[in-house]
Amino acid sequence: MSLKNSFCLFLQLLTLLILSSCGTSTLDVDVEMPNIRFQTPETTGKSLGGRAQMSLGSAHKISLARSRQPRNLFSSSPSSVQIETNTEYSVANSLGYGADLGLVKWLDLTFSKRGESHFRGGLKAQLFGVKGMTGKGLKIALQSSLGYQKDNDVSRADFLDNKPDVYDNVSALTYMRSVDAALLVGHRFNDTFLIYLNGNWEQNKVESSLSVNGQPTRSMDNTFTQHGLLLGVGISQGEKETKLSTQIEAGLSKLQDRFGHEVNRRAWGVALVMNF
User: Fold this and answer.
1) What are phi and psi of 164, to 5 degrees?
2) Which residues contact 177 (CB under 8 A, 6 or more apart)?
3) Could you read off the pLDDT of 189-200 as tens digits, one per residue?
4) Are 138 and 129 in contact (CB under 8 A)?
5) Parent domain of 80
6) How many other CB atoms are found less than 10 A from the CB of residue 143?
7) How far is CA 29 from CA 102, 117, 239, in A?
8) Which of these, 134, 147, 199, 232, is most buried using a 10 Å CB contact count?
């Protein structure tokens, strides 16, 4: 081995030693609120009819609190835990899934889960137009659901840290409850093509408590209200009884907390749907 290669190897090992001798334990307490829906103004159109979907779409990501506890190269013990509780907003793009079950021709049971967001279950009623994914013309529906999530997060040291047990145990327990409603209006041009608008409202109540070594330290609670308007298209293929379709949605979403802070985002998503 040449002197140059030996020196490069020495530097790499020294860097790895330094990185493993210092580190940081962190925790980010966050929640996600999707701003896409993938709900059309059509029900499944029959009792025990079904619809299943896989999707990729945008969401509001809200960080309620963050903790950080650093440890430097010259100390075996970390410094004290640093906690920030200001609310921070960002965008998440997440995979999701959903399913609808027809109860009667005009009424479906709906269920969805997108990324790290909460579970939602509700009902959709088609009020006008030919039921199901057939029949040309105007179609109108109302949809509403309830959501719930319980999440327990714990702090974690850096991957290369050689002393992960010296840090304080920081944990957070977060509850999120939601209610939402939507008006869906669309027009089916033929068995293949549907266009629709989804005007939606949602309210999320979030409560979180943060503890250090089992002792409660901080409590955070907030209520987030979301208004959205989405333009969607559905492109179908296959037989009437078993259709495969692609849904694309895009629009705008406004999120506001109980203190009046407002965030406006573009919303987008694409889903693969199987109807049976």
Assistant:
1) -70, -15
2) 146, 147, 148, 204, 205
3) 998 899 999 999
4) yes
5) 23-275
6) 24
7) 37, 13, 46
8) 232
d(CA 85, CA 241): 52
The Cα-based distances of 81 to 22, 58, 75, 153, 216 in angstroms read 15, 33, 15, 16, 13
Max CA distance (Å), the chain = 81
d(CA 112, CA 90): 22
Rounded to whole angstroms, the Cα distance separating 48 from 255 reads 36
Q: Considering the domain boundaries, does residue 1 fall inside one?
A: no
CATH for 202: 2.40.128
- Name the burial class of residue 27, with classes exposed (0-12), middle (13-18) and buried (19+) by CB atoms within 10 angstroms of its CB: buried
Residue with tokens 């009902």: 123
pTM over 0.70? The answer is: yes
Number of domains in the chain: 1
Q: Residue 65 and residue 29: Cα distance in Å, rounded?
A: 5
- φ and ψ of 267, to 5 deg: -115, 145
- Confidence tier at 20 by pLDDT (50, 70, 90): very low
Q: List CB contacts of 274: < 8 A, sequence separation 6 or more.
A: 51, 52, 53, 242, 243, 244, 245
